[in-house]
Specification:
805 residues; single chain; 11 strands; Transferase(Phosphotransferase), domain 1; Phosphorylase Kinase, domain 1; 3-stranded antiparallel beta sheet; disordered N terminus; elongated; 6-stranded antiparallel beta sheet; 33 helices; mainly alpha
C-alpha cells in the first residue's frame, strides 16, 4: 500500500499573491502580499527560506516567530497564523506596508502631514514602553525596516528577530551580523565601558532617535549625521537631542519621553492625536463625552488622512450607532466619511445603517437624515426607497414640528424619481394636497407648490391632468405672497404638460386675476407667464400644424425632466422656483387657508373697491384642488373672494358699447355663460374632473368635503342683476356687494345701485326662524297645560297620608 505525504504549504489556508514581494528587510524575512483562501481578505505573509549553512539565522527567525505569536499589543504587528516546515517559515499578519514604502507613496501622492507622523511616532513609543516597562524586553532592532503601516495608517512595530530579555535570562543580545542593522547601534556598544552605567532602554531610545531622523530626513548615511536635526520640527528637536545624546544614562524612558512630547505645545499635542486617543478609549467614555466628540469630529475630518477616516473613524461611527447611544450626532461625520468610499463599499457599510435610521422616532435624527439626503440618495435603489424609506419619511408630513414638515417636502425632490406609481401618484399627492390647503405655515405651503412644480414631469398623465392646474390655481389664492409666486412659476415650469384648451380656459383666467395682486413680485411673474402662454397660443394659431408637437408631452408617460424646449421657453420660471424658498422670511405674517381663501387684492385703478365681505372660516372648495371652471359652474359653493378673482376684467373695456344696449345685457351674459359650459372641450375636461372626484384615493387624508357654503346675505348671481341705466352714470356695479340693512332707504331706481341686493336666501332663513319660534312657543304652551292639569288632578295632600291608587 502506498501512502502519499500531504503538502503542508498546499493545505495552508493562506496563499501568496503572484505579485512580486513588497520589499525585503535587512533581516532574514521577505514580505509578500497574500489572501485568505476562504474569504479572499488581504493579509501579509512573511516568508523565511531555510538555506544550508544558515543555522544561526534560522534560529533567529524561529525565535522571532515565537515572539510575534505570543506578544499581543495594538501597536505591535498582529499575528494571524503561521506555518513551520523544514524548508520554510510562513508568518501571516494583518495586511501592512513597510514604513519606507508608505512614506514614499504618501509624499508622491501630495505630501505627508506632520500630524500623521506625530501619531505614528506616538504609536511606536507606546509599543516600546510596553516592551520595556511591562515585558522587560529589549527590542534591539528599532529602525525603518522594523516599522509597518496598516491600511488605516496605524504604525506597527515588527522586526522582533533580535529581541532579548532585559533581565539577562537566556543570555545577551543575539548577534546580527548585518551591517545595515548595526549602524543603528548606540556608540556605547562599541566599547565595554558603557555597559555598566546605561539603562535597559538606552539602546532602544538611541535607535528611536535614528528612526525619527530618517522619518523626516530620509535614509541615515552615517551616525555623525544625527548631530544635524535637519527637517525635524522645532517642537520635537529638544526631545530628539535627549535621545541621541552620548550619555546613555540621560536618555529618557519611553513613557517619560511620550509624556514630554504630549505637553502643551508639544509635538504630539494636536487634534489628530487627541482624536485617535479618544477612539481607542471610546468604549469606556461617558455618553455626554461621546456626544461632544462626535459633534466636533466633523470639523476635523477634512484635515485627516482619507485612509484613517475610512478604516478607523468609520467603523467607530457605525459601532457607536449600532450599540451606543450616540444618536443623530453621528450622521454628519458618517456622511462626510462616506465620500471617501466607493459605491460598493457605500452600499455594504452605510446604506444598511441609513435605512435603519429612517425607522427611528428620534426627531433630531430624522431631520438630519432629510437635510443630508442628497449625499446618499444615489446609492438607494428603488425597491429600498419604496419599501423601507418612503413609508417612514411620509410620517414627517404629519409631524407637529414645522421644520420636519418642511424638510420632508424638500426631500421629495430627491425621492420622486425613485418612487413607484402608487407612492408617487396617490400617497404623495394626498399629503401634498393636505399640506397646501391646511398647513398653517406659509413657507411650507409655498415649498409644497414649488416641489410639485419640479416633480410634475414624473407624475403620470392622468395625475398631471387631475392635479397640476388645480394645485397651482389654489396656490395663486394663498394669503402668503411667495406661495402665489410659486403658483405662477409652477404653471410656467410645467407649461408643456397642458393642452392648448387648458391654457386658454383654465390657466390664463387664473393668471389674469393676478395682474392686480397687491404684491408687485406676484404681478411681475404673472405678466411674464401670461406673455409666455399667449405667445404659445399665438404660434399654434398661426400654424395649427404645430399643435401635435406642442402637446406631445400632455398625454405622454412620466419622464425625468421637462426637456430643452421647456427650459428655453420658461427658464425664468425654473430659476425662480429654485431660488424662491431660499428668500422666504420666517417673520413674514402668514395666514392659514382656513382663515381666508384669497388675498385682498386692490381693484383696478380708476374703479371703486368692492365692499368688504365676510370670509368663511373653512376652505370653501368641496374637492382638494378645485378648478376655476368648477367655481364658475357652481357659484353657490364659492366664497365672495373667489368670485372676485373670476370677474371678467375684459368686459370693462367694452362698457361704452354694452351700455348702449341695456335691454340685451342680461341675455347676452347668460348666453355667454351657456356657451362656455356647452363647449365640447370643456365638457370633456369637466367629465375628467368629475371622475377624479369620484376616486376615493385622492380624498383620503384630506379634509372631509364640506357642504356648500351659502352666499352672504344680499348677494345674487351676476346674471340676476338689473344692469339697466343711462350712460351718464358709470359707477362700478361691484361697489355695492355689501349686505344692506333693511331699514336703509332704497336708492334711485335709475342709478347703478338700483338693484335689490337682498339674497333670496334671506327670506327663507327668516321664514325658518319664524317657524322655529312658533314651534317653541307652541311647545311651551303645551308643557304649561300639562303641568297645570297634573297639579289639579293631585289635589291637596296631608303630611304622612298615603297616596291611594
Amino acid at each position: 500500500m502506498w501512502f502519499f505525504a500531504r503538502d503542508p504549504v498546499r493545505d495552508f489556508p493562506f496563499e501568496l499573491s503572484p505579485e512580486p514581494p513588497e520589499g525585503s528587510s535587512p533581516g532574514p524575512w521577505v514580505l509578500h502580499r497574500g489572501r485568505k483562501k476562504a474569504t479572499g481578505s488581504p493579509v501579509s505573509i512573511f516568508v523565511y527560506d531555510v538555506k544550508p549553512g544558515s543555522e544561526e539565522q534560522t534560529q533567529v527567525a524561529k525565535a522571532a516567530f515565537k515572539r510575534l505569536k505570543t506578544l499581543r499589543h495594538p501597536n505591535i504587528l498582529a499575528y494571524i497564523d503561521g506555518l513551520e516546515t523544514e524548508k520554510c517559515l510562513h508568518v501571516v499578519t494583518e495586511a501592512v506596508t513597510p514604513l519606507g514604502m508608505y512614506l514614499k507613496a504618501r509624499v508622491e501622492a501630495g505630501g505627508l502631514k506632520e500630524q500623521e507622523l506625530s501619531w505614528g511616532l506616538h504609536q511606536i513609543l507606546k509599543a516600546l514602553s510596553f516592551l520595556v516597562n511591562d515585558c522587560n524586553l529589549i527590542h534591539n532592532n528599532v529602525c525603518m525596516a522594523a516599522v509597518f503601516v496598516d491600511r488605516a495608517g496605524e504604525w506597527k512595530l515588527g522586526g522582533l528577530d533580535y529581541m532579548y530579555s532585559a533581565q539577562g535570562n537566556g543570555g545577551g543580545p543575539p548577534r546580527k551580523g548585518i551591517p545595515e542593522l548595526e549602524q543603528y547601534d548606540p556608540p556605547e556598544l562599541a566599547g565595554s565601558s558603557g555597559r555598566a552605567v546605561r539603562e535597559k532602554w538606552s539602546a532602544d531610545m538611541w535607535r528611536l532617535g535614528c528612526l525619527i531622523w530618517e522619518v523626516f530626513n530620509g535614509p541615515l548615511p552615517r551616525a555623525a549625521a544625527l548631530r544635524n536635526p535637519g527637517k525635524i520640527p522645532k517642537s520635537l528637536v529638544p526631545h530628539y537631542c535627549e535621545l541621541v545624546g552620548a550619555n546613555p544614562k540621560v536618555r529618557p524612558n519611553p513613557a517619560r519621553f511620550l509624556q514630554n512630547c504630549r505637553a502643551p505645545n508639544g509635538f504630539m499635542n494636536n487634534r489628530f492625536v487627541e482624536t485617535n486617543l479618544f477612539l481607542e478609549e471610546i468604549q469606556i467614555k461617558e455618553p455626554s463625552e461621546k456626544q461632544k466628540f462626535f459633534q466636533e469630529l466633523s470639523k476635523s475630518l477634512d484635515s485627516f488622512p482619507e485612509d484613517f477616516c475610512r478604516h478607523k473613524v468609520l467603523p467607530q461611527l457605525l459601532t457607536a450607532f449600532e450599540f451606543g447611544s450616540a444618536g443623530a450626532v453621528v450622521l454628519t461625520p458618517l456622511f462626510k466619511v462616506g465620500k471617501f468610499l466607493s459605491a460598493e463599499e457605500y452600499q455594504q457599510k452605510i446604506i444598511p445603517v441609513v435605512v435603519k435610521m429612517f425607522s427611528s422616532t428620534d426627531r433630531a435624527m430624522r431631520i438630519r437624515l432629510l437635510q443630508q439626503m442628497e449625499q446618499f440618495i444615489q446609492y438607494l435603489d428603488e425597491p429600498t426607497v419604496n419599501t423601507q424609506v418612503f413609508p417612514h419619511v411620509v410620517h414627517g408630513f404629519l409631524d407637529t414640528n414645522p421644520a420636519i414638515r418642511e424638510q420632508t417636502v424638500k426631500s421629495m425632490l430627491l425621492l420622486a424619481p425613485k418612487l413607484n406609481e402608487t407612492n408617487l401618484n396617490v400617497e404623495l399627492m394626498k399629503h401634498f394636497a393636505r399640506l397646501q390647503a391646511k398647513d398653517d405655515q406659509g413657507p411650507i405651503r409655498c415649498n409644497t407648490t414649488v416641489c410639485l412644480g419640479k416633480i410634475g414631469s414624473y407624475l403620470s398623465a392622468s395625475t398631471r391632468h387631475r392635479v397640476l392646474t388645480s394645485a397651482f390655481s389654489r396656490a395663486t389664492k394663498d394669503p402668503f405672497p411667495p406661495s402665489r409666486v410659486a403658483g405662477v412659476l409652477g404653471f410656467a415650469a410645467t407649461h408643456n404638460l397642458y393642452s392648448m384648451s387648458d391654457c386658454a380656459h383654465k390657466i390664463l383666467p387664473v393668471l389674469c386675476g393676478l395682474t392686480v395682486d397687491p404684491e408687485k413680485s406676484v404681478r411681475d411673474q404673472a405678466f411674464k407667464a401670461i406673455r409666455s402662454f399667449l405667445s404659445k397660443l399665438e404660434s399654434v394659431s398661426e400654424d395649427p400644424t404645430q399643435l401635435a408637437e406642442v402637446e406631445k408631452d400632455v398625454h405622454a408617460a412620466s419622464s425625468p425632466g421637462v426637456g430643452g424646449a421647456a427650459a428655453s421657453w420658461a427658464g425664468w420660471a425654473v430659476t425662480g422656483m429654485s431660488s424662491l424658498t431660499s428668500k422666504l422670511i420666517r417673520a413674514h405674517p402668514t395666514a392659514t387657508p382656513a382663515e381666508t381663501n384669497a388675498p385682498q387684492r386692490s381693484p383696478p385703478e380708476g374703479h371703486p373697491a368692492p365692499a368688504p365681505t365676510s370670509v368663511p372660516a373653512t376652505p370653501t372648495s368641496s374637492s382638494h384642488w378645485e378648478t376655476q371652471e368648477e367655481d364658475k359652474d357652481t357659484a353657490e359653493d364659492s366664497s365672495p373672494a373667489d368670485r372676485w378673482d373670476e370677474e371678467d376684467w375684459g368686459s370693462l373695456e367694452e362698457a361704452e358699447s354694452v351700455l348702449a344696449q341695456p335691454d340685451d345685457w342680461s341675455a347676452k351674459s347668460q348666453e355667454s355663460q351657456a356657451g362656455q359650459v356647452s363647449h365640447p372641450d370643456r365638457k370633456a375636461l369637466e367629465s375628467d374632473w368629475s371622475s377624479w372626484e369620484a376616486e376615493g384615493s385622492w380624498n383620503q387624508g384630506w379634509q372631509e368635503p364640506s357642504s356648500p357654503v351659502p352666499l352672504p346675505e344680499g348677494t345674487r348671481l351676476a346674471s340676476e342683476y338689473n344692469w339697466g341705466g343711462n350712460e351718464s352714470n358709470k359707477g362700478d356695479p361691484f361697489a355695492a356687494l355689501s349686505v344692506r340693512p333693511s331699514a336703509q332707504p332704497r336708492p334711485d331706481p335709475d342709478s347703478w345701485g338700483e338693484d335689490n341686493w337682498e339674497g333670496l336666501e334671506t327670506e327663507s332663513r327668516q321664514a325658518k326662524a319664524e317657524l322655529a319660534r312658533k314651534k317653541r312657543e307652541e311647545r311651551r304652551r303645551e308643557m304649561e297645560a300639562k303641568r297645570a292639569e297634573k297639579k289639579a288632578a293631585k289635589g291637596p295632600m296631608k303630611l304622612g297620608a298615603r297616596k291611594l291608587d
